[in-house]
């Protein structure tokens, strides 16, 4: 799918506003038939328009009140192995490969400062990791969102 038409954009905007909306609710909200919404949803899903449907779960009640970002510098030839090893650490909730001076940005949750120190040590022990820089997250100021993009004309 090269782009989204106005119906696709309206459907995606409605889902961004209410991710739990049923097909019937979406059809009512957009004044479309249920079959049209189902067909559009199937086409959007087949095209890869939707990211993971895994629920966002707050880690605080699980005992992980702190979040941090660990910048990881790696030997480039070992990047794939480093990523595989980092993925085995349960406290790692996300990681991105970056261009520039930092190779990986790893998002972790932890119980306290000692736990963060331990997690950082586990990452540093991975063969191919040269060094890390750790920043404690002070709070999420802008959550993940796409609604503003969907609201743009284009």
Tags for this model:
transcription; transcription regulation; Alpha-Beta Plaits; elongated; four-stranded antiparallel β-sheet; Arc Repressor Mutant, subunit A; 6 helices; Dimeric_a/b-barrel; alpha+beta; 4 strands; 154 residues; 2 domains; 38% helix; Tscrpt_reg_AsnC/Lrp_C
Describe this structure in words.
The protein has 154 residues and is an alpha+beta fold. It has 2 domains: 6-54, Winged helix-like DNA-binding domain superfamily/Winged helix DNA-binding domain (Arc Repressor Mutant, subunit A, Orthogonal Bundle), CATH 1.10.10; 62-136, Lrp/AsnC effector binding domain/regulation of amino acid metabolism (RAM) domain (Alpha-Beta Plaits), CATH 3.30.70.920. It is built from 6 helices and 4 strands; from the N terminus they run αααβαββαβα. Strands 2-3-1-4 form a 4-stranded antiparallel sheet. Strand 2 (92-97) and strand 3 form a beta hairpin. It starts with 5 loop residues before the first helix and ends with a helix. The mean pLDDT is 92.
| Uncertain stretches of 5 or more adjacent residues | none
Largest sheet: 4 strands, antiparallel
Number of domains: 2
Count of beta strands: 4
> Which whole number gives the mean pLDDT?
92
Global morphology: elongated
CATH homology superfamily name of the largest domain: Lrp/AsnC effector binding domain/regulation of amino acid metabolism (RAM) domain
Distance between the termini: 15 Å
Find the structural class using helix and strand composition.
alpha+beta
Question: Judging by the overall fold, what is the CATH architecture of the largest domain?
Answer: 2-Layer Sandwich
Oligomer: single chain
Strand content: 15-25%
Report the total helices: 6
GO molecular function: sequence-specific DNA binding
Keywords: DNA-binding, Transcription, Transcription regulation
InterPro entries: AsnC-type_HTH_dom (IPR000485), Dimeric_a/b-barrel (IPR011008), Tscrpt_reg_AsnC-like (IPR019888), Tscrpt_reg_AsnC/Lrp_C (IPR019887), WH-like_DNA-bd_sf (IPR036388), WH_DNA-bd_sf (IPR036390)
Pfam family, one: HTH_AsnC-type
